[in-house]
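ok so I'm stuck.
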Amino acid sequence: MIQVIHGLKGSGKTKRIIDMANDAFNDQKGDVVFVDDDNRYMFDLRHEIRFVNAGEYGMVSPEMFFGFLCGMLAQNFDVTVVFIDAFLKLVRAKPNETEWFFERLADLSERRNIKFVLSVSCDDAQAPDYIRKYFI
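replied:
not stuck anymore, here's the structure
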């Protein structure tokens, strides 16, 4: 399952995804991972949640980030939910440049039974349909 928290900058997406991650820890039977582009919100998360600063690894495209996610999941088969904050900033892409990523992510989610929650900063009216269908 994929869920997308959406809205323009300053609309409260980060607070919402942090709250969802902290709540998910109580509901999940497996590991919870939170991926961000910097360490700014590391201490807002429960200490049991695995925080990953993906900004340290030089992502420059959605394709690179997908490979990064796959590598992370390959080393830990207990992950059941992954939260990704500031997705577009992290992959340095515009919403209409991410169709390949969302197709692969949906397949990965289904095959591994992993829930992905992403925050995407964009104007809702301009979001492509392949992202809009995951809006919550």
